Amino acid sequence: MGNEKLKSTRRKFIKSAAALAGTSLGLSLLNASGLLIHAAEPEDKDLPWYGIGIDIEKCIGCGNCARACKMENDVPKEPFFFRTWVEQYTVKNNGEVDISSPDGGIEGFEQKIPDSDIFKSYFVPKMCNHCYKSPCTQVCPVGATYVSPEGVVLIDEKYCIGCRYCVQACPYGCRFIHPVKNVANKCTFCYHRLKKGLAPACMENCPTGARIYGNLRDKDSELVKFLKEHITQVLRPNLNTGSKLYYNELSSEVR
Amino acid sequence: MKFYIPPQITRLALAFAVFIALFLVVRHQIKPKSFGKYGHYRAESLVENASIDINYAGQTACFDCHEDIRDLKETDAHSGLHCEICHGPGEKHVNSADAADIIIPAGREFCGRCHSKNAGKSEDVIMQVDLKEHNVGKNCTECHNPHAPWEMKN
């Protein structure tokens, strides 16, 4: 009797194990045929994994980055379309914070507040944070925006339906709808330049070296050195976006 | 133990199977070939994004012809600056070697983008002047050589 029972449980076990193996084999075959799409991007350790470093102390608010970006990427000229822009934060002696960004700082800044009223003042260049857990790619209903194998958040303009979900989802305000193409538009980390071995236009054109980029997987890269030597912070760390834009000297007034 | 499956369930399952099969066939037809190769997107889009033309040629391209400026620039405060920071996108000029294809900037406001006095700029990072006081009415290049700013012209 006991032996019988043991036999039956063993048979059951072998049966279910075989079924499990068969199913996983079948699924893996399906996967190879391209019928299944996996949600998580496979990591390719041989490729660089790009990040950005911005040294607020070095930024002089000349707007070269914003200007270069517009000219490199044919960003619409209207002063409310930006892939990167600069903001000036001025903390007055009475504690008030004045934030200005005339035309995104593209023509530089003029300090309107007299020096005697200023407690401190600094420039904060902003751009896409190229998050690896980016909210904008997660909300896309058609798979038109994604994190590339190099960690660059890109848009598939042919596939985008212009629904604007991603524009709303980005907590850093880094996306806009292109007025002519009617699809989402954003910083591409100058992907076309990176692939040709050139630096992104904004980094190439920063006169003080306030902007740097590099491979986070390479422990000798300029960016990793920057992260090692400075106390850096990302914007809105509480949102857990996996931002890869690291600021040095980021003050608490910055939003 | 024998399972009893009611006939309506079998029919329903069959209908489901047909529906799922149809769905897979239709999806296979309309899904772009490269979709899902790396993730939930068209892999072809990576190539499209990478194939956009550049406008900024990059620092090394300038010095293929303008070695004299490189040598002059190295002697002075603007040594670290890339040419296109002031001269704008140069890819067209690199290909045509036509002076009309590059910007030759001028004016106090242009230099002032970097050098105008502003409390937000660190004195350690950049030399600043008050444009309202410093030689008003004169163009910066009347005294300064932009490639070597401390080589005064008079």
What does this structure look like?
The complex is a heterodimer of chains A (255) and B (154). By secondary structure, chain A is an alpha+beta fold. Chain A has a domain of 163 residues: Alpha-Beta Plaits, CATH 3.30.70.20. Chain A has seven helices and eleven strands. In chain A, strands 9-1-11-10 form a four-stranded mixed β-sheet, with helices on one face. The longest helix of chain A has 31 residues. Chain B starts with 6 loop residues before the first helix and ends in an 11-residue tail after the last helix. The longest helix of chain B has 24 residues. Helices cover 44% and strands 0% of the residues of chain B. Chain B has 154 residues and is mostly helical. In chain B, 19% of the residues are buried. The model of chain B has no long low-confidence stretch (mean pLDDT 92). Chain B contains eight helices and no strands. The interface between A and B is large, with 62 and 43 residues.
A few lines on this structure:
Chain A has 255 residues and is an alpha+beta fold. Helices cover 26% and strands 20% of the residues of chain A. Chain B is an all-alpha fold.
Compute the number of strand runs of chain A: 11
pLDDT averaged residue by residue of chain A: 91
Which ranges of chain B are low-confidence, i.e. pLDDT below 50, for 5 or more consecutive residues? none
Largest sheet of chain A: 4 strands, mixed
Mean pLDDT over all positions of chain B = 92
Q: Considering DSSP H and I runs of 4 or more, what fraction of the residues of chain A is helical?
A: 25-40%
CATH second-level architecture of the domain at 50-133 and 170-248 in chain A? 2-Layer Sandwich
- Sheet with most strands of chain B: none
